[in-house]
Here is the input.
Amino acid sequence: MLSSVGRSLILLGAALVALGFILSAASKISWVGRLPGDMYVRRGNWTFYAPLATGLIISLILTLALNIRKFFK
Here is the structure.
């Protein structure tokens, strides 16, 4: 039982490290958050931002990455 908990913690830590690398690299990509389907409205001191196209692309990439093993069976 403890070995499975330890393995889960190692995987969670590796996923967090990978997420950190991805987020730090995403700040250097200028088109993230500025795609044609992203909505940005500013009126006075009120701002609304909805990254619809960026969210769809990130969702597609994650879906493909997480299901890639099914393609090679």
Remarks:
- The longest helix spans residues 2-26.
- The longest strand covers residues 39-43.
